[in-house]
Amino acid sequence: MTRxxxxxxALFLAxxxxxxxxxxxxxxxxxxWAGLYHPVSGADHVLAMVAVGLWAGMAGGRFIWAxxxxxxxxxxxxxxxxxxxxxxxxxxxxxxxxxxxxxxxVGLAVPLPAAVALPVIAVFGLMHGAAHxxxxxxxxxxxxxxxxxxxxxxxxxxxxAAGVALSGPGAxxxxxxxxxxxxxxxxxxxxxx
Length: 193
Known about the structure:
There is one protein chain. This protein is an all-alpha fold. It has one domain (45-192). 75% of the residues lie in helices and 0% in strands. It has helices at residues 7-14, 18-22, 32-40, 43-59, 63-83, 91-107, 114-135, 141-165, 172-192. The longest helix is centred in the C-terminal third of the chain and has 25 residues, at 141-165. The radius of gyration is 16 Å and the shape is globular. The chain starts with 6 loop residues before the first helix and ends with a helix.
């Protein structure tokens, strides 16, 4: 039996740092760096985006690419709507719900068909994108969007790598534990807000 890497739980626990909970920096700067930094500067974005990768890795098959693609595509649409002045109401509560729901899907190992799971993931991506649009800069949008899209892809890949690595029979408990921990942290963020 292989043991899960010790680094993964350590990285996950680092998200518990209070400064990481609601910090979203770089809002006013129109740069690739600001876009790269925004998704990783708040636990709500990090947890949800990594959870998409965890779920994709756990589910396997076409879900490996379809889940991150659904999230990222809808995220860019949500960003475009927000920067165009289209109101996307309720994005903050839905973002917190995304952390809880996505974490629960991994923690409970819910085998949803792609026809159900992908639209749910896309709605969450749309709301995360709306937040990026509302909280982002007023100019230099292309660089900022490229940055947060790349950062999101990196977070999805990190979750995907962990999900695939922990999908074996001996490590599946660790994967489900990461999902349950994600959902628990999401609930804590919701209660703190």
